[in-house]
Amino acid sequence: MNINGVEIERTKLWTKSQLIQYLRENGENDRVLADVRSEYHELFGEDIIWRYPISDGTHMGMLIVPVQEGFLSLPYDEMESDDYEILIPDGAWLMTEVALTRFITDWTAFSDELLIAMNDMRRIVGEDAGSTRGGQS
Q: With a threshold of 0.85, does the pTM exceed it?
C-alpha cells in the first residue's frame, strides 16, 4: 500500500494486538509509541504515525497507527510534559471508510475555521501596526 508516496509492506507492520500488548507492558503513552515510530521510520523511511489532535466527540484526540489489519485509532484524553499523549489502548479501534470520511470532514471544518480566524487576526494586527506607525510619524 502507498500512503503519501511511502510504499508500506503490510506484513512488516505490527498487528493491532502486538501494539496494544506492547503499550500495556511498557507504558500507555506516546513516549513508548516512539519505539514503534522509530522502527517504522527505519523500515519505511518516513514517520507513518499521525496525530489527529482534535476531539472525535469522545476523546481529546488520537494517534493513527498503521497496523497489519488497517489503521488503528489510538485515543488519548490527557497529555503530560514527559510522556506526551497518555494513550487509551482499551479505546483503540480499526478505522472504517465511514469514520475516516467523518474525520476528514471534521478536520477540514476545523482547519478552515482556524485559517479564517487567523487571517482576520493578521489583518487586525496589521491594521493596528499601521495605525501605530501612522500615529508615531
A: yes
> What's the rounded Cα separation, in Å, for the pair 68 and 92?
14
- Cell representation of residue 117: 480566524
Amino acid letter for position 128: D
Q: What is the C-alpha to C-alpha distance for residues 98 and 116, in angstroms, rounded to an integer? A: 27
CA distances from 67 to 12, 56, 99, 117 (A): 9, 21, 17, 36
All structural domains of the chain with their residue ranges: 1-95, 96-137
How do residues 13-36 score in pLDDT, each as one tens digit? 999 999 999 999 999 999 999 999
| CB-based contact 63:36 (threshold 8 Å) | no
Cα four-point dihedral sign 1, 60, 96, 26: positive
> Taken in order 109, 95, 64, 44, is the CA torsion positive or negative?
negative
Per residue in 52-110, pLDDT tens?
A: 999 999 999 999 999 999 999 999 999 999 899 999 999 999 999 999 999 999 999 99
